[in-house]
Structure formats: C-alpha cells, structure tokens
From TrEMBL, chain A:
InterPro entries: CO_DH_flav_C, CO_DH_flav_C_dom_sf, Diverse_Substr_Oxidored, FAD-bd_PCMH, FAD-bd_PCMH-like_sf, FAD-bd_PCMH_sub1, FAD-bd_PCMH_sub2, Mopterin_DH_FAD-bd. It comes from the Bacteria. It comes from Jiangella ureilytica. SUPFAM superfamilies: CO dehydrogenase flavoprotein C-terminal domain-like, FAD-binding/transporter-associated domain-like. This is Xanthine dehydrogenase family protein subunit M. PANTHER family: XANTHINE DEHYDROGENASE SUBUNIT C-RELATED. Keywords: FAD, Flavoprotein, Oxidoreductase.
Automatic annotation (TrEMBL), chain B:
InterPro entries: 2Fe-2S-bd (IPR002888), 2Fe-2S-bd_dom_sf (IPR036884), 2Fe-2S_ferredoxin-like_sf (IPR036010), 2Fe-2S_ferredoxin-type (IPR001041), Beta-grasp_dom_sf (IPR012675), Diverse_Oxidoreductases (IPR051452). It comes from the Bacteria. PANTHER family: OXIDOREDUCTASE WITH IRON-SULFUR SUBUNIT. Keywords: 2Fe-2S, Iron, Iron-sulfur, Metal-binding, Oxidoreductase. Residues 17-93 form the 2Fe-2S ferredoxin-type domain. This is (2Fe-2S)-binding protein. Pathway: Alkaloid degradation; nicotine degradation. Gene3D superfamilies: 3.10.20.30, [2Fe-2S]-binding domain. It holds the Pfam family Fer2. GO terms for molecular function: 2 iron, 2 sulfur cluster binding; metal ion binding; oxidoreductase activity. The keyword Metal-binding applies.
C-alpha cells in the first residue's frame, strides 16, 4: 500500500457528506472516481488527513437534460462513461460525447467522474474547458447552504478552484448554445487519450443568412486554467463558406501565452493553438450551417 | 449516517473497513485498510496474482478487472469501494480447464509474448464482447487504446479479439 494513512469516511447522504466535510474542515478531501486523486495519494503528492468517499451518494449519479432541452446537468457521481453514453444529453449537446471520447481511456472513463475532473481543475482537463466554453455553472453544497458559481469564477488556477474545503461540488450544468450553432472539440496528444499538448473546444453561431454572428474558443494545456477567447471580431459578418478562419486562429494564438515543458515548446503549442482553432472553427461552422 | 474509520475508534493495529466482495463468483469478506487498493487486495490478500500491477497510475492497463461488468483500473480503485460489488479477474475467465474463447484465440494467434499485459487485454476484450454490439476492428482498436504491450505485439492481439468477434457474428471464421 502506497498511500499514507487517512481517516476514512463513507457518508450515505449528501447531508452527511457536507456534515463530515464541515467537521473536519479544512483537512477533508473528497473522493469520487479517484482517477486523479488515487494516483496523487499513491505518489504521496497528496496526503489528506480525512478522505470523504462519496461513492455511496447514489442520488448524485445522474445526467439530466433540462425541461426545455436548454442544458445538461451532471451530478457528482455520474461517471464520464455515463455522460458519454447518455442518449438524451447527446441529442441536445453532442459536444459532451465528442469531447469525452478524448478524455483518457475507457477504463478511466468508467470510473472517473465529470464533476470530479472539473473540481480537480487540471489545466489539461477537457471538461473544464467545455464548461468554461459553454459558460456553465458549478453548484456547491456545504452545511451553510448551496451556491452556484459561474465557470469563469470557479477556476482560479492550476488545480485550484474557489471551492472551500468544507464544500462539496454536487453538480455542474452545461448550457446548450442558443441559436444556429455548431460546436467541436479537437486536440493533439502523443497517444489518443493521453494528456493533450493543446486542445480546443469552439462554438460558432450563424445568423439566418448564414453569416458568422459569433465565434469563441476555450483551451486546455496552454494556460493555468481553462481560458475562453471571443474570436468573433476576426470573422464577424462573413459568409460561412468563405469566412477567414485562419485569421481567427491567428487571433487566438496571439492571445495565448503557453509555456515550455518536456512535452512541447511554447512555440509549438502556439502553432497548435492556431491550427487547431482554425480547423475546429471551420468544422463547427459547417455543423452550424446544417443545424436547424 | 456516515461510517468513519479512524485511529481513534480502532482497538489495535491499523484501522480497518469491512468489505464483502464477489470475486469470480465467490463471496469474500475481509477487513481492509482504507488505503488498500483493489489490485493489492486481489494479489496480496486473496493470492489472485493473475491481475498484474505496473504503473499504478492507470496508464498501462495491466491491472484491468471488471467491477460489476465494467472494466476499471484496479490500481486506483479503493478496495473499500468494491464492497458489495462483483469483481471478475482473469482467473474467472476459464471454465475449469476449458479456456474462454478469448484465451483460446490469444493462444491461436500468438497474441502474447512475455504475457505480462495479457490479463489486462483479456479483461478489456471480454468487456467489449459482452456488450450489446459485436465490435468491428476499429471499435476493438479504440477500446484497447489504454492497454500497453511493451513487446509491441498489438496486431496479433487485435486479430485474436477480431476472430472471436467474427465468431459471435457468425462470420468467415465462425
């Protein structure tokens, strides 16, 4: 056994879970799928005094489409694979499944939770960027009550969020983009499913004449937290078939300031951001043009 | 109600969590440390060493077992969370001395060299073939993407799984 010892708590209800988190605050750490946390425990990069295992909270194991089809809400115990396979969620927001196919490998998606990866806030976590791209929200519970935070306020840095150690993230909500839109995720990784060297999710909105009304993109692995860039100014009003997508790609790359690491240089990441943005926007525009 | 296991409630030795796990159809009850992970429980507590352990970061796939039918990495799965679940390991594949069709096919296609990755590939493949749809080659390759073979014998592995899939489909090898 490689993890350091911890006091183990296995609450049966959400109320019990937040009560335990309050009692041990700030020494508690929430365990859901454990696909990021257990390796950290095994490497002893994390050694929490108290582990609060929420795997018995079956009331949080859900994927729900809003009544009007305008959003998808994912509970804290829904595994990535549950979200990926949810037909109703796919029907209103195919971007979720399309992106989840890039999230690690099938075994990890069977165990890891979408909410857990968002709470973990790894700068290379795809679902953090999807939530930010769609201007989604995060709902947190504590003994003090419930609050809902916008994605842009939730992520505060690498592996950092505004969540207090006494709070449990109970769900996240992904709004479905309004209007005639297309959304695409694309990324480059050394092996499919590995951490992306650069990844981007985009949404393109067209008006009734098929002119570009909006374009925005979110990025992973190029900034400390998921960064969203509005690219509309590069392509606004242009017809979908001959919009200058490379100009939008250049605009995006100019706004990003990635770092070097052992996997790639900053220059290569910038290059990827430009090329991937261009490709993704073009594809998203194509999807928007055939959308109802 | 929250069950909590801590030093303060333990009478002697490290604190323990009671678990009852179905392992290859046999119900097993044990007291485990909260920090115990499933692969160590299987190998060290139960002596089921067919499941291998390597990276312990769920990137290599050798520790793949089925928990309630879904393939997971046993290296990052707390044993405490397997309480009440059914776990299938490579030891549960054969029926006595009769090999599972996947095991037969791996032998026939020379789909193992050193053999260290084989249990993970077998369990991953079983989960795929147990699904509702008979997979094609592309689906097999995608499904096995998280399993690493350092002998690099991927082609025979994919062919072995494809062969069993074709039999299920009643295809040319059927």
């Amino acid at each position: 056994m490689k993890p350091a010892g911890f006091t183990y708590h296995r609450p049966a209800t959400v109320d019990d879970a937040v009560a335990v988190l309050a009692e041990v605050n700030p020494a508690g750490k929430v365990l859901a799928g454990g696909q990021s946390l257990v390796p950290l425990l095994s490497m002893r990069l994390a050694a929490p005094e108290h582990l609060v295992d929420i795997n018995r909270l079956s009331s949080l194991a859900y994927v729900r489409v809003g009544d009007d089809g305008g959003s998808v809400t994912v509970g804290a115990l829904a595994r990535h694979a549950d979200v990926e396979r949810d037909a109703a969620a796919y029907a209103v927001l195919p971007l979720l499944r399309d992106t989840l196919r890039h999230v690690a490998h099938p075994t990890i998606r069977n165990r890891g939770t979408t909410v857990g990866s968002i709470a973990h806030a790894d700068p290379s976590g795809e679902m953090t960027a999807v939530l930010a791209l769609l201007e989604g929200t995060v709902t947190l519970r504590s003994t003090g009550g419930e609050r809902t935070v916008a994605a842009r306020d939730f992520f505060t840095g690498p592996m950092s969020t505004c969540a207090d150690a006494g709070e449990l993230v109970t769900s996240v909500t992904f709004p479905v983009p309004e209007g005639r839109t297309g959304a695409v995720w694309t990324e480059v990784a050394r092996r499919h499913g590995d951490y992306a060297v650069c990844g981007t999710g985009v949404v393109v909105t067209l008006d009734d004449d098929l002119r570009v009304a909006g374009a925005r993109a979110a990025y992973i692995s190029v900034a400390p937290e998921p960064v969203v860039i509005d690219l509309t100014e590069a392509v606004a009003g242009e017809m979908v078939d001959d919009a200058d997508w490379p100009a939008a790609g250049r605009l995006a790359a100019g706004r990003l300031d990635p770092g070097d690491d052992i996997h790639a240089t900053a220059a290569y990441r910038s290059h990827l951001a430009e090329v991937l943005t261009t490709r993704a926007l073009r594809e998203a525009a194509g999807r928007a043009s055939v959308a109802a | 109600m929250t069950e909590s296991v801590s030093e303060s409630v333990a009478t002697s030795g490290p604190p323990r969590v009671p678990v009852t796990v179905g392992v290859n159809g046999v119900s097993v009850s044990r007291q485990v440390e909260p920090r115990s992970v499933l692969v160590d429980f299987l190998r060290e507590d139960l002596g089921l060493t067919g499941t291998k352990v390597s990276c312990e970061l769920q990137v290599c796939g050798v520790c793949t077992v089925l928990v309630d039918g879904r393939p997971v990495s046993a290296c990052t799965f707390l044993t405490a969370d397997a309480d009440g679940a059914d776990v299938t390991t490579v030891e549960g594949l054969s029926d006595g001395q009769t090999l599972h069709p996947l095991q037969e096919s791996f032998v026939d296609h020379f789909a193992l060299q050193c053999g260290f990755c084989t249990p993970g590939f077998l369990m991953m493949s079983k989960a795929l073939l147990d699904g509702d749809e008979v997979p094609d080659r592309e689906a097999i390759v995608e499904h096995l993407e998280g399993n690493i073979c350092r002998c690099t014998g991927y082609e025979p592995i994919v062919e072995a799984v494809e062969h069993v899939a074709e039999k299920l489909r009643g295809g040319p090898h059927g």
